[in-house]
TrEMBL record, chain A:
It comes from the Bacteria. Residues 1-31 form the signal peptide. Residues 44-299 form the Periplasmic binding protein domain. One of its GO terms (cellular component) is cell envelope. Belongs to the bacterial solute-binding protein 2 family. GO terms for molecular function: carbohydrate binding. It comes from Tianweitania sediminis. The keyword Hydrolase does not apply. This is Sugar ABC transporter substrate-binding protein. It is found in: Cell envelope. InterPro entries: Peripla_BP_I, SBP_2_dom. Keywords: Signal.
From TrEMBL, chain B:
GO terms for cellular component: plasma membrane. It holds the Pfam family BPD_transp_2. Its main location: membrane. One of its GO terms (molecular function) is transmembrane transporter activity. The keyword Transmembrane applies. It is found in: Cell membrane. It is a multi-pass membrane protein. The chain crosses the membrane at residues 26-46, 52-74, 81-101, 107-126, 133-153, 173-195, 216-243, 255-273, 285-304. This is ABC transporter permease. It comes from Tianweitania sediminis. The lineage of its organism: Bacteria, Pseudomonadati, Pseudomonadota, Alphaproteobacteria, Hyphomicrobiales. Keywords: Cell inner membrane, Cell membrane, Membrane, Transmembrane, Transmembrane helix, Transport.
């Protein structure tokens, strides 16, 4: 009995030592899994926090950072392009492993992106691309959004629709990356359909009130306007309200594009906007997080060309096909 | 002293007054010419419908300009006007979104902005900080407080257009009278009454003309400063309600990046109210707003880009200031009056 007890104790102790060593081994393996990214540094310089788009991205990227054990910092430019250049210069001097940049225009940060890459910092451009290529880009294809919205406008307002074919475009800024690309793609489509007439193409500086004033004035001059194409759902709220206040919600289609949070669905449900091409900011945030993980582990294309993760699009439509599940909530 | 030399100084103010009105006349003439040119060349400009749009779209600018004009006439400046406008609209928007009854939400929004106006006046009249610095600081404080403590980092607050109060402010009081235009007319009348029919109005002109003289002669300049900045706060929140209800959004970028404050000062200066104060009235505000409103409407109809519009407005302001300096050169009086 004594022998048996002793034997059992020895067996149990041996089992415990084995289990502990196994656990320790697993722990080492886990630490080895983390090692390529742990302790590394990522800095995100958005145009501004405080909007669902960037908050949604940051939330998902932060989740990836927590899992990967690397640091993730946000440097908020608060819609000030001057401050943004300074923040980016400071971020470059802090020598992060990956820099995530949200370009306000195609030109503004081009030189700094080039400098960062030359200094060995991998740059991930998010949603708005600069003229200067870098290691990676994650975001929507603005060419595709511009083209698809223009094609839909042609279908709704062009030959055979019985409508005037008059369209008002409200870009954010004429030099903003997305506005430039969407306008180029849209005009390419419209040029093939001479019945489409762009009666106004005036930037709103991304402000709802300016978009409202432009739309109400254009609607007065062209009461038979068929569609408004706003380049961002936020400022297009003003344009949509101008259409609604003029009692033309059923006659003028309001198109826009955006990150697709629940506010967008509410606007479509209330027919302030009719069709929104959503690039799903929540999904983009996760794509960005995955790309950052890969970049921190050394991923790049051998010939130096840019890795691209194009965001899938969701089309939120008013009317019978309205589906609120297409939007995400913060 | 001969009779001639004694009479000479007495005739100067009249001559000066004639010259001082020149800018207002030049701007009024320019507006008239612009209207004629736009009517002849732009389809859809000279219609009653477009006149309605011009009035609705310039309502909030006019209301803000009334507040700024009163402040400037008293030889002050309120750089926090747009911040107050957006902050007031935010309070209203958040309260009605939270289910608070509309009258209570309106009362809270107006009272909060009155408190900020009074704080501005206290800093300027009692602590004796220059108005430009005091209101610049309060503008920064308001934006910071509201963005981070109230909106928790958000820039935008969307107002539910389905709310009856929001719909009221964007709707019509009478079939031919939109609510924004009615509020604009009400504010213009209140401004006229304040400047021309109250004791405070007379003191406002005296403060602008010669602040030290007004103070030394026993006028209640400190209490009047409170009236001035609280009135400006009233105009700010009224403009905020008009703008937020129409566009369905309260947007803090109007303060941080927008050109609205610049436009308000532009209206006052173009109308012929000198930045050194002491002169001007309702007619000047109307002349200034008319030029900007007509120009903005015409350029939008002509599909001129927003950036080009800003550039042209800047050139017009510069031209107005140069014209003002030419027509109203500095003399012994204006030199001692000082500038901002």
């Amino acid at each position: 009995m004594t022998y048996r007890m002793g034997h059992r104790l020895v067996s149990a102790a041996a089992g415990l030592v084995f289990a502990v060593s196994m656990l320790a081994g697993t722990g080492t393996a886990h630490a080895q899994d983390e090692s390529p990214m742990a302790g590394k540094k990522v800095i995100f310089v958005p145009i501004s926090m405080g909007i669902s788009l960037t908050e949604g991205w940051a939330r998902r990227m932060r989740e990836h950072a927590e899992i990967g054990g690397y640091s993730f910092e946000v440097r908020d430019a608060a819609f000030n392009t001057g401050i943004m250049s300074e923040l980016l210069a400071k971020a470059i001097s802090d020598k992060p492993d990956v820099l995530v940049v949200h370009n306000p225009t195609v030109q503004l940060l081009a030189r700094q992106i080039k400098q960062a890459e030359a200094d060995g910092i991998k740059v991930l451009q998010i949603n708005l691309q600069s003229n200067q290529p870098s290691t990676a880009f994650v975001g929507a294809s603005w060419e595709r959004i511009g083209r698809e919205i223009a094609e839909d406008i042609v279908k709704e307002c062009g030959a055979g629709s019985g409508k005037s074919g008059k369209v008002a475009i409200i870009p954010g800024q004429l030099t903003a990356a997305d506005s430039v690309m969407m306008n180029e793609a849209a005009f390419k489509v419209f040029e093939q359909h001479k019945e489409i007439e762009v009666v106004s193409n005036q930037a709103s500086d991304w402000e709802p009130e300016k978009a409202r004033q432009i739309t109400s004035t254009v609607l007065q001059q062209h009461p038979d306007l068929c569609a408004v194409f706003g380049h961002w759902d936020v400022h297009t709220m003003g344009a949509g309200n101008a259409v609604k206040d003029a009692g033309k919600s059923d006659d003028v289609l309001v198109y826009s594009t955006g990150g697709g949070d629940d506010v967008a669905c509410k606007a479509v449900e209330e027919k302030i906007q009719h069709r929104i091409w959503s690039y799903d900011a929540d999904g983009q945030g996760r794509d960005a997080g995955t790309l950052i993980d890969l970049m921190l582990q050394g991923a790049s294309i051998e010939d130096g060309s840019m890795m691209i993760a194009q965001s899938p699009l969701k089309i939120i439509k008013s009317g019978e096909g309205f589906d609120p599940s297409l939007c995400w909530k913060m | 002293m001969s009779a001639d030399s004694a009479a000479a100084p007495l005739t100067l103010p009249n001559q000066g007054s004639g010259r001082r009105n020149m800018l207002e006349r030049v701007v009024a003439a320019a507006t008239f010419l612009l209207i004629v040119a736009f009517a002849a060349t732009i389809d859809g400009f000279a219609t009653t419908g477009n006149l309605g749009i011009i009035l609705i779209n310039s309502a909030s600018l006019t209301v803000l300009s009334c507040g700024m004009a009163v402040v400037i006439i008293s030889r002050g400046l309120d750089l926090s006007l747009i911040a107050q406008m957006v902050a007031g609209a935010t309070i209203f928007g958040m309260l009605i979104s939270g289910g608070v009854a509309a009258p209570l939400a309106l009362l809270a929004a107006y009272l909060s902005m009155v408190a900020i106006g009074a704080l501005n006046a206290w800093l300027i009249a009692y602590v004796e900080i220059p108005s430009m610095l005091a209101t610049l600081a309060s503008s920064m404080f308001i934006v910071g407080l509201f963005r981070f403590a109230v909106l928790r980092g958000e820039y935008l607050l969307l107002l539910p257009k389905s709310d009856p109060t929001v719909a009221f402010f964007a709707g019509r009081l009478l079939p031919f009278l939109p609510v924004p235009v009615a509020l604009m007319l009400g504010t213009l009348m209140a401004t006229w009454f304040l400047l021309n029919r109250t004791v405070a109005g007379r003191i406002i002109y005296a403060m602008g003309d010669n602040f030290q003289a007004a103070r030394l002669s026993g006028l209640s300049v400190r209490v009047t400063a409170i009236v001035v900045y609280v009135f400006a706060a009233f105009t700010a929140i009224t403009a905020g309600l008009i703008m937020a209800s129409a566009s369905g959004a309260v947007d803090f970028r109007t303060v941080t990046n927008g050109t609205l404050l610049f436009e308000v000062i532009l209206v006052v200066v173009l109308g012929g109210i000198p930045l050194r104060g002491g002169r001007g009235g309702l007619r000047n505000i109307i002349v200034g707003v008319a030029l900007i409103a007509v120009l903005r409407n015409g350029m939008t109809l002509m599909n001129v880009t927003t950036q080009t519009q800003d550039m042209l407005k800047g050139l017009i302001l510069l031209a107005a200031i140069i014209t003002d300096n030419y027509l109203n050169p500095r003399d012994a009086e204006t030199d001692t009056a000082g500038d901002l």
